[in-house]
Specification:
By secondary structure, the protein is mainly alpha-helical.
Length: 84
């Protein structure tokens, strides 16, 4: 029984995105992603800082949700997203 629930949990795990991953996926600068996180527009999990810059992980669904409602995206940028 425990083996089945562990296997189910492994199948449902999601790979979290780094700020760089999210920026590359959207074709924008990582600073745009960091600003959205700091302003609270984009949800992200803050990891323990290992350097002077905080490390974040973003759930892909949160990134998709932010893309859909973001006012930070210019119209040409938003149109490029639709082509992806």
């Amino acid at each position: 029984m425990q083996l089945q629930s562990a296997a189910s949990e492994i199948r449902t795990r999601v790979v979290m995105l780094t700020v760089q991953d999210a920026a590359e996926k959207l074709g924008c600068h990582p600073v745009t992603i960091r600003r959205a996180i700091k302003s609270g527009e984009l949800q992200a999990m803050k990891l323990t800082p290992t350097s002077s810059r905080s490390q974040y992980r973003i759930h892909p669904e949160d990134l998709n949700r932010w893309m859909g409602r973001s006012t930070a995206l210019s119209k040409p940028f938003a149109e490029r997203l639709n082509d992806c």
